[in-house]
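Example record

One chain of 96 residues, shown exactly as stored in the release files.
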Amino acid sequence: MVLTPAPWLAAGGRAADIGCGHGAAAILLARAYPQASVHGYDFHDRSIAIARQRAAQAGLAGRIRFATADATSYPAGGPASCSARCWRPTAVPGPG
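Predicted structure tokens for this chain:
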């Protein structure tokens, strides 16, 4: 099932990208929904530093907040009216 966040985010809603890595999904959300507030969380400090750098390069540093937190310690009930995570197996070998 795909949940379309457009109505909430287009109206200035808040989104949290939990396990954001280098911030690609958070940056895409911020670009697609200029009124939205986007927060990214990851347990890896270096990934958060890269995410902040990439958001700045995209001109979105003022619209996306990144913080170091794991999936059990991010501020639940805090910044998000919509939370999403997309898992892409990038290191899984193909068949054969």
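Notes: Residues 16-84 form a domain with the Rossmann fold fold (CATH 3.40.50.150).
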